[in-house]
Write a sequence for this structure.
């Protein structure tokens, strides 16, 4: 009987744990005690799993019955035989992969690993990390031998934060195992809960590579559109109108310009680039796309400042409202948001920047970025601004009377192409 342990209960781990709990006895393990306490009340602050759905699978004790038992108690993991690691894989300040969370999670699993157990990784990595970096940690801590006493698998996560349509069970899952036989076992395990189906990859490295190029491809495509936006703006052509016209061709890829942040697209290409450089190859297109996308925040700020100067608005001391801070719309996730680049660049001009986002938690933003923000409309009501920048296309902004926050000659810049063209001074 499969007894599942999900290691890490964030945006990826919790939806997966909830899903497996409908068919298997499942432990949700996280070292964040506050997170465990929150989940055991039946609430998920990431809003990935609705409260009533979470409460429906929660159980008070771990047994042979289906259900989700959330805990930070390592001893409970000893009762499991399948461990699925869903911890984040960030980059450091120099854009180099930081595998620390993976190493720590592998140490945790290694401490409870038994003969016959399977350890599956879902974290996005470059090809080779599972077998060359994680497995040695499992062997060292457990004292067991890989592919003799225990086995490994890989099934890259495809969670899209905030997306209530493409939920985990509705997205086709890639699976792989450290042996052909284990590959089948891992594939069948996921197939039992993923209604969209699965794809069995021939090896763990193939599955790792498939995941990392998914987001690298999107990054490069968005970089191309961002570069087009810069060119068309110099020509006085509206980029969104160009894309609308070009999109009438059946095989035109409908990407839009914008800020590229988050835990995937803005990070994963660096993992592939790092591995390529270790092998002596300098990846030109991948890194060129990253450089261009990473500079879009500064570009937006410069464009806004130019518009202010053209309207004879004094820049130093100007009051600027930034609408949105999360890395994407209708989601509280502020990880690797590129809105911070806009804010910091504007602050360098000695402007007064006010950030309002109804989704972002001010305490989380303050902790991660040392920036004060607000999620209460009352904090900005009655205030007038010299410039307003819409950075995230939250649905809630459609109900916001944005013009009521503008001074008579104020600049309104739309990063997302979310507002009516005639209402804004410019859009990306």
């Amino acid at each position: 009987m499969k007894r599942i342990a999900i290691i890490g209960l964030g945006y990826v781990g919790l939806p997966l744990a909830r899903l497996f709990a409908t068919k298997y006895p499942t432990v949700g393990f996280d070292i964040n005690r506050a997170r465990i306490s929150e989940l055991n009340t039946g609430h998920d602050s990431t809003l990935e799993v609705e409260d009533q759905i979470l409460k429906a699978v929660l159980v008070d004790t771990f047994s042979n019955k289906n259900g989700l038992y959330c805990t930070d108690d390592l001893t409970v993991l000893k009762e499991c035989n399948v461990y699925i690691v869903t911890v984040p894989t960030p980059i450091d300040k120099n854009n180099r992969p930081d595998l620390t969370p993976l190493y720590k999670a592998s140490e945790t699993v290694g401490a409870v690993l038994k003969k016959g157990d399977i350890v599956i990784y879902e974290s996005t990595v470059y090809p080779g990390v599972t077998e060359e970096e994680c497995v040695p940690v499992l062997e060292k801590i457990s004292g067991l031998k890989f592919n003799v006493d225990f086995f490994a698998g890989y099934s890259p996560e495809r969670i899209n934060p905030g997306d209530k349509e493409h939920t985990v069970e509705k997205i086709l899952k890639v699976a792989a195992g450290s042996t052909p036989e284990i590959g089948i076992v891992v594939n069948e395990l996921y197939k039992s809960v993923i209604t969209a189906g699965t794809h069995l990859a021939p090896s763990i490295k193939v599955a790792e590579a498939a995941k990392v190029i998914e987001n690298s491809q999107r990054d490069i495509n968005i970089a191309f559109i961002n570069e087009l936006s810069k060119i068309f703006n110099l020509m006085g052509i509206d980029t969104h109108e160009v894309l609308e016209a070009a999109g009438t061709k059946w095989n035109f890829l409908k990407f839009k310009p914008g800020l590229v942040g988050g835990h995937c697209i803005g990070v994963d290409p660096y993992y592939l680039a790092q591995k390529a450089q270790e092998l002596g190859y300098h990846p030109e297109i991948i890194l060129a796309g990253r450089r261009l996308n990473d500079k879009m925040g500064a570009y937006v700020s410069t464009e806004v400042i130019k518009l202010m100067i053209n309207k004879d608005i004094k820049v130093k001391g100007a009051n600027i409202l930034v609408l949105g801070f999360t890395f994407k719309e209708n989601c509280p996730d502020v990880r690797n948001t590129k809105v911070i680049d806009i804010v910091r660049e504007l602050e360098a001009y000695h402007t007064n920047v006010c950030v309002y986002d109804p989704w972002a938690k001010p305490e989380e933003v303050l902790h991660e970025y040392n920036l004060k923000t607000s999620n209460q409309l009352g904090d900005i009501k009655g205030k007038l601004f010299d410039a307003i920048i819409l950075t995230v296309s939250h649905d809630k902004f459609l109900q916001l009377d944005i013009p009521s926050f503008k001074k008579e000659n104020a600049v309104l810049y739309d990063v997302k192409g979310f507002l009516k063209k005639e209402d804004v001074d410019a859009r990306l």
